């Protein structure tokens, strides 16, 4: 569906390329899993389960925790929880939410990157949900 619009695919590619340098791959995959769970995106859930396990080397347990906005690693848990909260609250998070992610060691720039990653994943979740994209990754 995205390929139907050169403008949309170009914008997505630019966002994806820029955010590919944000944080680390394990945090990015955890955020993607948390957001896909919030948005009920079956395609993105399957895709990021595969990439999280295969490329980010997340365990099956960590993948499940990420979907819930958590992790066995405290810093990763803070990022996943904040990302899930941003997605669920559509950005209207509390000061306590921001303080918690800061307390886990994330800088102001990294907090913005988490929000940007939520937005990027929200976009792909919406596209795949609207399109009803057939899941071509292993079943979750």
Task: Report on the architecture of this protein.
With 140 residues, this protein is mostly helical. Helix content is 70%, strand content 0%. It is built from seven helices and no strands. The chain has helices at 6-19, 25-39, 42-54, 60-67, 74-88, 95-103, 108-131. α2 packs parallel to α5, α2 packs across α7 and α5 (74-88) packs across α7. The longest helix has 24 residues, at 108-131. The chain is globular and about 40 Å long. It starts with 5 loop residues before the first helix and ends in a 9-residue tail after the last helix. The model has no long low-confidence stretch (mean pLDDT 97).
Please supply descriptive tags for the structure shown above.
140 residues; mainly alpha; 7 helices
